[in-house]
Amino acid sequence: MNVSIGMKAPDFSAMTTFGPIKLSDYKGHWVILFSHPGDYTPVCTTEFIAFAQANDQFEALNAKLIGLSIDSNPSHLAWVNQIYLLTGIQIPFPIIADRTAEVAGMYGMIAPDASKQETVRNVLFIDPDQIIRAILVYPLTNGRNICEIIRLLTALETTDRCNVVTPANWEPGSPAMVPPPRTYDQMIERINNPQAQNLNCMDWFWCYKDKPC
Predict the structure, then answer these.
(1) Could you say which residues bind substrate here (predicted)?
(2) Are 143 and 164 in contact (CB under 8 A)?
(3) pTM of the entire structure?
(4) Burial class of 39 by CB neighbour count within 10 A (0 to 12, 13 to 18, 19+)
(5) Which residues are annotated as a binding site?
(6) Which of 44, 147, 201, 213 is catalytic?
(7) Would you list which residues are annotated within the binding site for substrate?
């Protein structure tokens, strides 16, 4: 099964390093569900440290992190303990033990042309209504940029809250954009008086809003 943006996130029950969880337990929160190829691997270790260090930022955005690989729960526990012993950093979010690849298969986290036995580095953004809003996929060989994940999460929340869209390279605090007019009358109104809508326009279809909302 492959998931796609806009669909309801499939519910699941799974054992994790924090005990059993269900995705539906997280309704009302954003969920960042991410997979990694395997425990005790160098790139994954750096990613988990980076996610742990950014956990407070995710929490401030009403988001919960959930990791996943097809390793066993004892392997996950031993690995996160080793990370703590080596760095002093605790992993503050659950890691799913997906030995049968049930959840990985449900979410399309195994790319058979890359590996039939490991999950690639998927990141799924699931909103508080449990709708999949964005999907990022990285190869086995390259770690994720946690700042980009936070940036995209912030952009999605800003879009929902303020009815705006975000331009290329948008950063929190920067001007957002507004969707183009849907009718001729709306187009004429925007052409004649963009200031009334607090807009700074390059053209009728291309307008910025300094304060999203």
Answers:
(1) 121
(2) no
(3) 0.93
(4) buried
(5) 121
(6) 44
(7) 121
